[in-house]
Amino acid sequence: MGKRNDVPTRGEVSESVKKHQADMVRKEEDLGVLATDTETVRSTLDSLDFGGTSEGVDAVQGAIEEAENVTVEIFEREDEVLEDIQRDSEDYQNDLQGRAETAEMDLGRISDASGRVETQETVSRLADAKNAVMEDRDFLRDEVERSDEARNESDRMQKELQDRVLARRR
What we know:
- The chain is an all-alpha fold and 170 residues long.
- Helix content is 87%, strand content 0%.
- It has 3 helices and no strands.
- α1 (10-47) packs antiparallel against α2 and α1 packs parallel to α3 (120-166).
- It starts with 9 loop residues before the first helix and ends with a helix.
């Protein structure tokens, strides 16, 4: 019997891809709230007339600027968490890609064996094996594509949110 390393089930693969996607979306939503909070604080500061005393104006301006700084710092920390999630997703995607490539090599080996056997029943069973490995390969390729699309969308959203929050700090 051939080697059978610790291989995940299709359900486990799908769940992992879905979990990475959900984690990215959840973190993007958190970043969206922080981006909106930052814009609100900045807009508030820009809208003030500062008609009070010098001490009052300094205190208000300082407190609002500190509110902005704190919000941006939280955004940057959460942005790093999203980066970690995206890296984990990419690593998993690379693992799935490797598994799809291995399935492709197995398909070649089975096809080669099919060409060397003459017993019809054996050829028939090897055809079943080819179909099974093609199904697995196609499943893995689909999951790689889903993972890639989710990560690309997350990257796009992340850049958009970073532009909203960090552009003014540069």
